[in-house]
Design goal:
Elements (H helix, E strand, L loop, with lengths): L13 H17 L3 H30 L2 H9 L1
């Protein structure tokens, strides 16, 4: 494993440090394998599915008035 000193910049302010680590993360993202991207995609789907199935209908139920809902049920 490479020592941490190799990755830490010398004396820099917080903004430069943030940019430094952001560049490192972007470089790592560019070199991820297909399996890692697939794992990320599955994770996003597992998080988004309950939101789509629970939160969106609850928001629509709160926003759409009863009259519109009745007309839509008749159609």
């Amino acid at each position: 494993m490479i020592h941490r000193e190799h990755y830490t910049p010398d004396s820099v302010d917080a903004a430069q440090s943030c940019l430094f680590w952001s560049a490192r993360v972007e470089a790592l993202d560019r070199h991820l394998s297909i399996n890692t991207w697939a794992l990320k995609a599955v994770t996003v789907v597992l998080i988004a599915y309950p939101i789509a199935r629970i939160a969106i209908p609850a928001l629509l139920h709160a926003v759409v008035p009863d009259g519109v809902r009745t007309v839509l049920n008749l159609i």
